Amino acid sequence: MIGSADIDIRVHPKSGRNAVEVSGDGTVRVRVTAAAERGRANEAAARLLAKRLGVSKSRVSIVRGHASRDKVVRIHGMESGETARRLRP
Amino acid sequence: MAIPSEWDLTGKKAIITADSRGWTPYLAGALAEAGADVAVAGSEASDMAEGVAAVESHGRRGAAIETDLTDAASVEAMAAGALGELGGVDILVNNATAEFGKRFERITEDEWERFMDFSVKSVFLACRAVGGLMLERGGGRIVNIGSALSQRGLWNSVAVCAAQGAIHQMTSSLALEWGRQGIRVNGIGAGWMSTKEPSEDDLRELLVRYLPSRRKGHPNDLAALLVYLSSDACDFVTGQTFFIDGGALAHA
């Protein structure tokens, strides 16, 4: 969708800590302590990603893979390229 | 902003395309502060109204012209409307842009076309329509607001980088074609910018730590160069894009 950025992420629920990690091949791993039940891991992952990107939670939405570890997350209203840049300076 | 008398834009008429990043009020405001009347062209969803308000706050004439920047007829009508409203056109600032990030293999044909239409075709249409008026009067200034992504690649951003490269080269080539008709075409390549007040937290941000400037830019950082590139003083400079990026491109 024009006017937003889609990021592929892999969510690791029930992790020892909350963290966003970006590896060399561009894989974004979001580790959350929450368990994958009743949308808690999704909620935590979106919140963590919003914090890392410095945007409000309302600008982050999961567009694909609600029930999967691999998800596509949409970030609304960031300047061109900045989403990618912020995840990997 | 203190403006050297050679850069004075009093009596000049400008058109700026509006975007949704919130830069238009600062850029249109800078032109107005230097003395220009400014028409702001864009969609209802853009920051067109804020741009006009900024112009009027400097006591200059501002006009909002609702325009579909991807549609030739709409852009032609906008150029004619601005000419009628302001009584001339001396300056065109192509500022509109859109965000689009996606893994390359997932970009659909429709998304690619719509993004390129909004980013690149819109610049072509505005230059053709407004430049046509400049050719008739024998001169003018065009400033394309681009980004440092015309020079660097970035993951998840192939379409954005390709569009920026196109705008960069359009700037050089058009400067050659219209040089003898007194039209100067230059670009400003913006680095990582924000319209928010910097906070203590920002200083810890990885992106800010990476920048030699140790801060992100603000549209006001582009203002003085925009005024210069729009002025009569900018006569021997054309086809260039100047990067205002806090040193980002100086990195290897």
SS-based class of chain B: alpha/beta
Percent strand of chain A: 25-35%
Per the CATH scheme, the topology name of chain B is Rossmann fold
Instruction: Give the averaged pLDDT of chain A, no decimals.
Output: 88
**What is the percentage of strand-forming residues of chain B?**
15-25%
Give the full name of the CATH homologous superfamily of chain A.
Answer: YggU-like
Helical run tally of chain A: 2
Shape of chain A: globular
Tell me the total number of β-strands of chain B: 8
User: Helix-strand pattern of chain A, N to C?
Assistant: EEEHEEH
Low-pLDDT residue intervals, each spanning 5 or more residues of chain A? none
Determine the oligomeric state from the structure.
Answer: heterodimer
Which H/E pattern describes the elements of chain B? EHEHEHEEHEHEHHHE
Strand order of the largest sheet of chain A: 2-3-1-5-4
What is the CATH architecture term of chain B?
A: 3-Layer(aba) Sandwich
CATH superfamily placement of chain B = NAD(P)-binding Rossmann-like Domain
Major sheet description of chain B: 7 strands, parallel
Helix content of chain B: 40-55%
Nearest-angstrom radius of gyration of chain A? 12 Å
Describe the structure.
The complex is a heterodimer of chains A (89) and B (252). Chain A has 89 residues and is an alpha+beta fold. Chain A has a single domain, classed as Conserved Hypothetical Protein Mth637, Chain: A (2-Layer Sandwich). The mean pLDDT of chain A is 88. In chain A, β2 and β3 (28-31) form a beta hairpin. Chain A is built from two helices and five strands, in the order βββαββα. Chain B has 252 residues and is an alpha/beta fold. Chain B has a single domain, classed as NAD(P)-binding Rossmann-like Domain (Rossmann fold). Helix content of chain B is 42%, strand content 17%. A seven-stranded parallel sheet of chain B has the order 3-2-1-4-6-7-8, with helices on both faces. In chain B, α2 (48-57) links the parallel β2 and β3. In chain B, α1 packs across α8 and α3 (72-86) packs parallel to α4 (109-137). The longest helix of chain B is centred in the middle third of the chain and has 29 residues, at 109-137. Chain B is globular. The mean pLDDT of chain B is 94. The A-B interface holds A 1-8, 26, 54, 75, 77-86, 88-89 and B 20-21, 97-103, 106, 111, 114-115, 118, 147, 149, 154-157, 160-161, 164, 192-194, 201-202, 205-207, 209-210. β1 (4-12) of chain A pairs parallel with β5 (100-101) of chain B.
